[in-house]
């Protein structure tokens, strides 16, 4: 089967969606012998869509692990005007404000719709909203008269990004939609997307890499010895709630002065804000915080293995891939009730759930787990069993492919 994936970034770009599409693409090639092409941008992250001071990858076509990757340059001029139009029309509830927001979010790639239509793909799949390439995928597929599968990645609590009639009209026009959780499916149904059009598919991990990771290497490197380590591992962006985690640790250190805080992930413009928050801490607390920026993906399992509690204080998520990675390493998690993570974590079984942006609630959950090593072990074991049963990349890729095949069949395609 000839598959075209359309996504905002692709390795070595860093991000949850970027990682998902990479794994699905490579597994389709490896497990099924499919011919997979990815159309993406030159960005290392989405900031390049509206900021001209960001580093970029070369435009053009290359092959990575059997996947053909074509990177398109983006138009990122007139950013202040784009933001002004989007912000003003949104604030005043003017008609077409969702279109102006889509133009602001980008990526603006004038030729991508035409190139998608010319791709020769038998099925086109794109991820994720609210970015503009989702429109290119839909309209390119319609021109070519091939089925399109849209992977929403809906962050329901993000009104600026997702309170957009354009998004839900686009999903209704797709041949099939993929939701990562039951929470997202129910949200889409509430927005008028037919239930029979939606497939619920989780995400995946390679569990062996995490289960066998060396716990001691990172701890030795940073001098943590036997200290308990609380970790956030992921993109350092504002909506992830990392600043809430830093603030919560102020309530932890008086009773657990040996506790460490690890913040690891790709550096963004928000990283400066996080570093400032840490610089404002008293010196003895500041020394308990470790930043690891832009780490090699190969050491990610060791980072999870080195921590004792993984904290994911974000509510603006369509899933939360790092929750699976923590469980694969046998670690308990703390996440938010709000949004998709609340439908993934079994409270008190494989982790704890708190309210988004609740410093006191997060501190209380941290105290409970820091004081109970055996409870942490039991929760980590439960999460690891959950991953092995339902969230390996082999299992998830086969679910994705089944949706692609169904979309082709419904559209009259022949395998």
CATH topology of the largest domain: Rossmann fold
Helix count? 19
Strand order of the largest sheet: 3-4-2-1-5-6-7-8
The structural class is alpha/beta
Alpha carbon gyration radius: 21 Å
Tally of structural domains: 2
Tell me which CATH architecture of the largest domain applies here.
3-Layer(aba) Sandwich
- The total of beta strands comes to 14
Specify the helix fraction band. Answer: 40-55%
Structure keywords:
415 residues, alpha/beta, Rossmann fold, eight-stranded mixed sheet, six-stranded parallel sheet, 44% helix, globular
Would you give an account of this structure?
There is one protein chain. With 415 residues, the chain is an alpha/beta fold. It has 2 domains: 2-204 and 392-408, Rossmann fold (3-Layer(aba) Sandwich); 207-390, Rossmann fold, CATH 3.40.50.2000. It has helices at residues 16-32, 79-91, 97-105, 112-117, 133-144, 159-162, 165-173, 182-190, 207-211, 215-221, 242-252, 271-279, 283-286, 300-306, 321-328, 341-344, 359-370, 373-390, 393-410; strands spanning 2-7, 35-41, 60-64, 67-72, 123-127, 148-151, 176-179, 198-200, 229-233, 260-265, 289-293, 309-311, 333-336, 351-354. The strands form 2 sheets. It has an 8-stranded mixed sheet, sandwiched between helices. The mean pLDDT is 95.
